[in-house]
Every structure is written in C-alpha cells, then in structure tokens.
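Reply to dn_fold:

You asked what the input looked like. This is it:
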Amino acid sequence: MAQAQAAATSVTLTVNGESKTLDVAPWETLLDVLRERLHLTGAKKGCDQGQCGACTVLVDGRRVNSCLQLAVMRDGCEITTIEGLGEPASLHAMQAAFVKHDAFQCGYCTPGQICSAVGMIREGHAETAEEIRELMSGNLCRCGAYTNIVEAIEEVLAERNAPKLEAAE
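and this is what came back:
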C-alpha cells in the first residue's frame, strides 16, 4: 500500500534579514528547515521535545523552541538565529559577554542560551540574578556553566539599563 504524500506548502521566512521562500512539508519543523535546508546549524537538535532549549531561536523577536514549531506556522515571520546576531569581527553584546565570562564549556547549548538571553532581555522581565535563572530555566547546560551564563546576562542587562550620558552642548 503506497503511503499518501501531503502536498508541500510554500512559505516565506525572513531569516537573519534575508527573505527565503521554500516549499516545506506540513510536518517539517522550523529547526529542520533551518539546519537541513538553509544550513544554519547554530540551533541544535537536543531533545527534540522542547525541553532543553538547544534549538532556541528568535521569531519576531520572541524566543521559541524551533523543534516545536512547524515551518508552515511561521510563514511571514522574521527568524533570527545565532548566525544572525553577530559576526566574529562584530559580536552581539550577548555573544561578547558569553566569551568574556567563559559562559560555555562544550558549547552545544550556547547558541540557544544566547538567543534565549537576548529574547529574555527584550521581554523586560529580568532584573535580578534570581529572575534570570528562573526565566532561563528552559535552557539546559549539561556542563553546568550556569553561574557564568547568569554573570554574562547580568552584564548585558546592566549595560542596557545604564543611563546614557548626553554630550555637553
């Protein structure tokens, strides 16, 4: 008995600032499209059940587990992956803070941690180390770099909240 094939659906995603139109199967996850079709391998397939956060990317500025998102659900959305946050010569502030604070060991979870931290700060709910730990609890680190991760996030949060000095007129 032949297995029925579902028709592919055309979706347009803006990924790291570039518009991409793809034909995707109804069951293809955003994570699989990013990794397998667009070759953006920063987001990792950890648990494939939305429990580890290794696949975290930003969708319209909000953090999501891309393993739980069907690509067809995100038609028309703006997707930012770790590759879209910064480049080696011009790191995003969060990437630079992770390097400065040695907030990674094996690095497997780091792209998801950084994307989640960027999204969390945009959400505006984190003010203390305790709140950062709670709001980042969906991102697991098997190496246990949590203390350094929190320190990196605190640094970026402090810089963001620091009063801007205006030039004297």
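The chain has six helices and five strands.
Hope that clears it up.
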